[in-house]
Amino acid sequence: MTATGVRQGVSADVDRLLTRFTRFLLLYSAEGGFELRETVRSVGAAYQADADVLAVAEGAVLVVRHPDGSEHADTVHVAPELARLDLVAEGKFLAGRISAGGLTAADADRELAGLAARRESYPAWLRIIGVTLFAAGFAPSVQATWRELGSSVILGAVMGVLFVVADRLRVLRTLLPIVGPLVVAVIAFEALHADRAPGGPVILMIPALFVLIPGDFLCAATVELAVGQITPGAVRLAQAAFTLVELAAGVVIAAEITGAGTRSLFEARVPSALPGWVLVVSWIPFTIGLAWTFSARMRDVPWILGLVYIAWGVQQGMTRAVGPTAGTFAAAAALAVVAGLLERSARRPPRIVLILGGFFALTVGALALRGLTTIDAGNQAQGLADLRDAITQTTALTLGLIVGAIAAMAGARNRT
Predict the structure, then answer these.
(1) Residue 294 above 60 pLDDT?
(2) pLDDT in tens, 251-262
(3) Buried b (16+ CB within 10 A) or exposed e, 285-306
(4) Sorting pLDDT into bands at 50, 70 and 90, what band is 163?
(5) Phi, then psi, of 191 in degrees rounded to 5
(6) Band of the pLDDT at 1, cuts 50, 70, 90?
(7) pTM
(8) CA angle centred on 189, ends 379 and 371, rounded to 5°
(9) C-alpha span between 120 and 163 (Å, rounded)
(10) 3-state SS string over the chain?
(11) Of the candidates 105, 50, 356, which has an alpha carbon nearest to the alpha carbon of residue 216?
């Protein structure tokens, strides 16, 4: 083969690798595609190729320019999801090895193809338990009562079955944001008499529905808008808002089907009935459940758990000292700073894996869902107040994440 043919073959290998990497990164960008462009550019630079990506929420245009003047352009279209945190971590490690010059483009492409084809890390039954733990671990933070905790175990198991089945049935996956709350709410009303729950039926259901509530998507969308990624931010914001409407509709339909009626969708404060240590310890099953639900590597769980406690601890302390908005801002900033500094190590998982548990712990989507259902129940004042608080805290969380990320980058530059 001539030298020209060899160069063309290498360029083709690089093009295939960059297209596959763009698809891989876009697929797992449900929490925001902030690093997609830089990762693709760094991988291309390792092979002396100038790569650039124009990304929207569900698509990307890749352009590659090679040293010999040849160009390659490709388009990628894939629906982003949050399902395989293990692959997100492995993708970071592979990109690091490529940038260090340890792999040819053909070898890297084969390795990336192997990652994309890798089977789920955990069996279906363990993911069902994961969703159950995820709900039960979050329950004390929603309402600190034994009834809330027990109901969350039952309803969380129901949601776990639906969540796992939806992975195998594309139709159910599309309809899960309305089918999930409909099934959970029917069981809650009929079997658990949620309409007579002291704090209201929606509070009883929120931990089980938490895996579907797009509070993290709302914040990712507002961050993208804040940093100038207008198109993906607007698309993701619209998607998150529509998902919230679907969730609320599922609960409302269930209330009507069961005869409880929309007037039963009230909301009330209930005094804490759980010892303080239960709330502290509950974040452990919450984090383990998150790992099993979203297929995170177990070796990453201690890091995720540590950041959950940092976010929750800062939020609790600042909320008591100043107020909930300032508490959310400070917690988000602390979370972003620590995650940004930790991810600098080539052996630690990327920021999205590190930050996700704390992000869920601070999420405000539950407030928005409560607001929508309370408005439908006829209590416009309380519902609008919940929506106002959701918007305020989403903004505070967004600004905290941006400030924390900037501080982490500044700290890394100073150390360098």
Answers:
(1) yes
(2) 889 989 998 887
(3) bbbbbbbbbbbbbeebbebbbb
(4) very high
(5) -95, -35
(6) very low
(7) 0.88
(8) 25
(9) 14
(10) CCHHHHHHHHHHHHHHHHHHHHHHHHHCCCCCCCCHHHHHHHHHHCCCCEEEEEECCCEEEEEEECCCCCEEEEEEECCCCCCCHHHHHHHHHHHHHHHCCCCCHHHHHHHHHHHHCCCCCCCHHHHHHHHHHHHHHHHHHHCCCHHHHHHHHHHHHHHHHHHHHHHHCHHHHHHHHHHHHHHHHHHHHHHCCHHHCCCCHHHHHHHHHCCCCCHHHHHHHHHHHHCCCHHHHHHHHHHHHHHHHHHHHHHHHHHHHCCCCHHHCCCCCCCCCCCHHHHHHCHHHHHHHHHHHCCCCHHHHHHHHHHHHHHHHHHHHHHHHCCHHHHHHHHHHHHHHHHHHHCCCCCCCCHHHHHHHHHHHHCCHHHHHHHHHHHHCCCHHHHHHHHHHHHHHHHHHHHHHHHHHHHHHHHHHHHC
(11) 356
pLDDT for res 414: 52
CB 138 within 8 A of CB 171: no
pLDDT over 70 (residue 138)? yes
Would you say how long the chain is, in residues? 416
